[in-house]
Design goal:
Elements: E1 5-10, H1 17-29, E2 32-38, H2 49-60, E3 66-71, H3 75-81, E4 84-90, H4 94-110, E5 115-119, H5 130-138, H6 149-159
Parallel strand pairs: 1-2, 1-4, 2-3, 4-5
The protein binds adenosine-5'-diphosphate.
Length: about 160
């Protein structure tokens, strides 16, 4: 099946090394990966959709089989639109499990042809989230273990 496409949706506000770890893994498994900023959830974001797309583009340019997109609406609908057979999500510590499992079950009900693939990052990223990075950066704390220098600069500019 040479054209198997996977969709990795998320807020990516901002992209962290944890997200990149997952992108690397998914891009190894699937011949084509679409990383997409989902703009429909209720989260209020620090970075605009365009800024998050720019970050994703510059952080994925070394992977030839990775594309960047954005969508609003149901993830399964966008997945079907782009011909994805799988939705990639991340599993970190226990707290992710319930949320990701319920999303996977719901998406399965909405479209049984699309599978959810839950990937686990390397150990250093197990407790890492965009929220943690933003909180640390807002207090001037160190984030260089969690994001690239490019994202660190953007965070410092935005959060002072
Ligand atoms: P969302 O608002 O959709 O949760 P996020 O950008 O916070 O958007 O996360 C997108 C996906 O990436 C989620 O499945 C989340 O579990 C996963 N993810 C985020 N950070 C990490 C990490 N450090 N390691 C593994 N998966 C992660």
């Amino acid at each position: 099946m040479p054209n198997r496409v996977a969709l990795y949706p998320g807020s990516f506000d901002p992209i962290t090394l944890g997200h990149m770890d997952l992108i690397k893994r998914a891009a190894r498994i699937f011949p084509r990966l679409i990383v997409a900023v989902a703009t429909n959830n209720a989260k209020s974001c620090l970075f605009s959709v365009e800024e998050r797309l720019d970050m994703l583009r510059s952080h994925t340019r070394d992977w030839p089989n990775v594309e960047v997109a954005h969508f609003s609406g149901l993830t399964v609908d966008f997945a079907r639109e782009v011909g994805a057979v799988a939705i990639i999500r991340g599993l970190r510590v226990i707290s992710d499990f319930e949320f990701e499992l319920s999303m996977a079950i719901n998406n399965e009900k909405l479209n049984p042809n699309i599978d959810t693939v839950l990937l686990t990052p390397s150990e250093p990223y197990l407790y890492l989230s965009s929220g943690l990075v933003k909180e640390l950066a807002s207090y001037g704390g160190p984030v260089s273990h969690y994001v690239t220098p490019e994202v660190e600069t953007l965070l410092r500019e935005r959060l002072g």
